[in-house]
Specification:
The structure is a single chain. The chain has 169 residues and is an alpha+beta fold. It is 18% helix and 38% strand. It is built from four helices and eleven strands, in the order αβββββαββββββαα. It has helices spanning 7-23, 82-85, 155-160, 162-165, and strands at residues 29-35, 38-43, 47-52, 66-72, 75-81, 98-102, 110-114, 116-122, 127-129, 138-143, 149-153. A six-stranded mixed β-sheet has the order 8-1-2-11-10-9. The radius of gyration is 19 Å and the shape is globular.
């Protein structure tokens, strides 16, 4: 006999979980990811999702770092190889590669090809570095407890940067 499903209990439990998630302080939470040999962080509120790389259609006459266009659930996204854009060379294609999609509030259907994700990181456990930041899309730099360097991304600055928007070769 099939187990009975109580919709009211399900809705109540779901509502409680959503309220608990909304009340948590996520200001120090970041998604860690790798670009070339560099560790990066991005705020959870700045990202829509991270997904495996779907087929990408090349665009003739574009810069090498602009990989092309892809269809994600019926919407076209412009895919840029973030490592190649930064001058670190082409991201080799492998099973760990992902597309990092910025939050829809940015109003840009862009996707960054990254070499892989490194899980959630809490920047309150990292030490801020007082070094001068050259790239406008780096909000801040941090050092972890073993001395590893992390770049905290400012997605808005990257998506609005003239060099990032100029994809023609």
């Amino acid at each position: 006999m099939a187990k009975k499903f109580n919709l009211r209990e399900f809705q109540t439990a779901l509502s409680q979980q959503l309220q608990a998630a909304a009340s948590r302080d996520n200001t120090g939470s970041r998604l860690g990811f790798r670009v070339g040999a560099t560790n990066w962080l991005v705020g959870l509120g700045d990202t829509e999702e991270v997904l495996p790389v779907p087929p990408i259609v090349k665009v003739p006459g574009a810069r090498r770092w602009f990989r092309g266009m892809t269809n994600i659930r019926g919407n076209l996204y412009a895919v840029s190889d973030f490592a190649d854009f930064l001058g670190h060379g082409v991201t080799p294609e492998h099973a760990d590669c992902r597309l990092l999609i910025p939050h829809h509030d940015f109003g840009v259907n862009a996707a960054l090809l990254i070499g892989g994700t490194l899980g959630l990181k809490n920047i309150s456990q990292y030490q801020p570095r007082d070094e001068h930041v050259v790239e406008p899309w780096v909000a801040r730099r941090y050092a972890d407890d073993v001395g590893g360097e992390w770049h905290d991304m400012d997605f808005g600055q990257l998506l609005g940067h003239v060099g990032f928007l100029m994809v023609e070769a």
